Amino acid sequence: MASGKVENFADIARNTQHKLSPAPPAGLKSIFDACRRIYPNQPNPLQVTAVVKYWLGGPDPLDYVSMYNNLGSVENGIPPHWHYVSFGLSDLHGDGRVHETNTDGVSGFGFELTFRLKRESWDKTPPTWPATVLQSLARYVFQSENTFVPGDHVSWHVALDSGESRIQHMLMAEDPQLGSIHTLHGRLAFMQIVGVCAEELEAAQQWNGPGVLQLLRKVPVAGGPWLVTNMQRGETVFELEPSLQDALSLGIETEGSNLSGVSAKCYWDDIDYPASCTRSSSPHSIRSTLSSLQEQQARLSQKDEEEIKATLRRGLKDIPLLPPIKSPASCQVVESEPLELHQTKALEGVHVKFNHESGSLLPLTLQGRLKHGRHFTFKNILGDIAITFVSEGIDGAFVDKDGPYAAHGPWLQVLIPSDFLNELIDDLEEVPRLQPEDLPKTYRWPERQFALTILPEQV
Prior knowledge:
Elements: E1 4-8, H1 9-19, H2 26-38, E2 46-50, E3 64-70, E4 81-87, E5 106-118, H3 129-144, E6 153-155, E7 169-174, E8 180-183, E9 186-196, H4 198-206, H5 209-217, H6 237-240, H7 244-255, E10 261-264, E11 266-269, H8 283-296, H9 302-313, E12 344-346, E13 350-355, H10 356-359, H11 362-369, E14 375-380, E15 386-390, E16 405-408, E17 411-415, H12 418-428, E18 441-445, E19 450-455
Parallel strand pairs: 5-9, 10-14, 13-19, 15-17
Antiparallel strand pairs: 1-2, 2-3, 3-4, 4-5, 6-7, 7-9, 8-9, 11-13, 12-16, 14-15, 16-17, 18-19
Helix pairs in contact: 4-5, 11-12
């Protein structure tokens, strides 16, 4: 992280004690004590620290990232590695400077991030690039207020160390040593980042994150019991152990996907598209529609936001570029919302639009979720628009076979009945393979009053 500097904990503790209070803040000390129990011989670890703290207007939400030298256990398939631990997603200070005072037994966001990086023979000191990754994830959490739980995954699309590695995405797991703790300001869990290949990310999307993590634990080179990330790994877990492909296929077939939502670039409107329209819309008309959508659609109410966040909480935060962090001073609280945001409007027909990356998840949505009687939500990272696809019989949906499309403010629900599902699966099977020159591409089902457009990434 460009704004960080490397210090050791003893210096930080002395500075904190001198400047802020007669003792280190209770939340910070609780995390350090948890680390001290694992690393009794490393009382003074190197730390990457934010030069200007977030609560003083700095850009980095994490006050510190500690870096420990873990000797591992070669006989148990655990290589020597660097162990990174964040300080700042939980409540370090307890005085409201960053997090609201605990009222539900949870400290701050309820977790801190960790990362285990295989130590290479040439490493004399821990690389600092993992601290940059942790800060980027922390910005996303502060911006979106979405939290991570074991099994979640993050699509990154570049090597985690910005090099040439195949390790370009992440799964989330419980840290095998730190687990969870209770502090003076509430409980928190330590959520470990696990670097994975694109094929392993896709497996987690099609099946589930916990299942893929269990496969990684079986192969020491791919992670082993403690899920240590090896940036030099050039083969997927399925190439290293081909028999695991059968376990994956069986899981997908029998269980489907447990991924219930993603953050995406998505849009919708209820403009009536004539059946005689051509299969593909022009880029100009698509861009014109998109530019007006943000103005036409109201903001999500707090109740709707909470419902969608609950849906996303067990699913992926799938954003290739994390949104910029807002400073505390720029955040505004809406005291009241228009009555119409709490009313549901039935729609005759809808046109939904996704960027290509988000649209590539549509086969997963249909095959892995709706075909198993479940639902799936796309939440726009650029605004308050949300699109939820539901299958028949979903409790709490405000759509049914007589009214398959309905909007609650900018939140759209689309019912895909069983007699339409297989047709949709066949028609959209090609979406992940579309090339940039194929876009935008629109699919239309006039008899259903339904249209879907895949947009170029730059729109």
